[in-house]
Write a structure and sequence with these properties.
By secondary structure, the protein is of the alpha+beta class. Helices cover 41% and strands 25% of the residues.
């Protein structure tokens, strides 16, 4: 018996870094960019493979000896949740999501893997329970994560997120056309979060002002998602990027791609994720999208992809 499980990438539309400190953020799933966990039942102890590697990444018999491995941690947590002590089969991990680029690759792989492990155990794990498990694994990736990656990835819905408060699922008034451009520079979200934390400790008032400013932009965008006009969110995104620059989590490559997308006609743009590398996102419309994509490639983007989030009525 074989089965496939998956989870999407995500982008933070507004609010990264500030969200770690209890301020709001808005994040969206990229449903066509996904991580997959394909499994096949066998009589051998569970092994997890990458689709590009000849040797297993994790073996069930070695789980306890690699506690800091995110894949091993996800398997252990899911097995404990399902109250099973023995797992058999093979799981192959594959992903379309760039690693260390702010698109939630780690959370998506964990979510897909957790669903596959639960299925091997003969159970279906709820989104609520899976979200809690993936968050625990996110701590291995990021140190002090906000929880926004796992929430968007597991529920696969746009959300207005405040750490420690109930999730607010969002709908949008009209299609949101995003262009995502990859700098090709891998970056550690853990390091970027640690940088902001150190800055907040060293210079509390000015750093808190920047974080509060980011939170204010998110609050302004919230009603625009619901009632429009969507294009007004673009200027909020650009201002959000400027505040992230001042926080010290942008880079020359990110800044160049933001400038290129705006010059090509995007409504606005910003880095998305931890920063210092990874991706920018640009808000555009269907007509302008090809020119924005082309300009980003000319400006040095290593990979460009587009995604459209539709209103719930159209998705249905």
């Amino acid at each position: 018996m074989t089965s496939q499980h998956s989870a999407p990438a995500k982008v933070i539309l507004l609010g990264e870094h500030a969200v770690v400190y209890g301020l709001p953020a808005i994040a969206l799933p990229l449903s066509h960019v996904r991580a997959y966990a394909d499994y096949q039942i066998s009589e051998s102890p569970l092994k997890v493979w990458a689709d590009t590697r000849p040797d297993p990444l994790v073996q069930w018999t070695h789980i306890t000896s690699c506690a800091s491995n995110p894949l091993a941690a996800m398997i252990r947590l899911t097995a404990e949740h399902c109250a099973v002590s023995d797992l058999k089969g093979d799981i192959v991990i594959r992903s379309d999501i760039p690693v260390a680029s702010g698109l939630g690759s780690g959370a998506a792989v964990s979510a897909a893997l957790g669903r596959a492990v639960a299925a091997i155990a003969g159970q279906r794990i709820s989104d609520c329970d899976l979200n809690a498990l993936v968050y625990e694994v996110e701590k291995l990736h990021h140190g002090t994560p906000s929880g926004i990656d796992n929430t968007v990835v597991v529920y696969e819905k746009p959300v207005y997120f405040v750490k420690g408060k109930p999730i607010q699922s969002l709908d949008v008034s009209s299609p949101i056309h995003l262009v995502v451009a990859d700098t090709g520079v891998a970056a550690s979200t853990r390091d970027a979060v640690a940088h902001v934390r150190a800055q907040l400790e060293a210079q509390p008032p000015p750093t808190q002002d920047l974080l509060d400013g980011i939170g204010a932009l998110v609050r302004q965008a919230h009603p625009l998602l619901k009632s429009g006009p969507i294009e007004r969110i673009g200027s909020l995104m650009t201002r959000n990027h400027e505040l992230l620059q001042t926080l010290g989590v942008s880079s020359r490559a990110l800044d160049d791609l933001v400038a290129a997308s705006i010059a090509a006609g995007a409504y606005g743009a910003k880095l998305s994720g931890g920063g210092r590398g990874g991706n920018i996102i640009a808000l555009t419309n269907e007509r302008r999208r090809p020119s924005v994509e082309a300009e980003l490639i000319r400006a040095g983007a290593k990979r460009v992809l587009s995604s459209t989030l539709l209103p719930k009525a159209i998705r249905a």
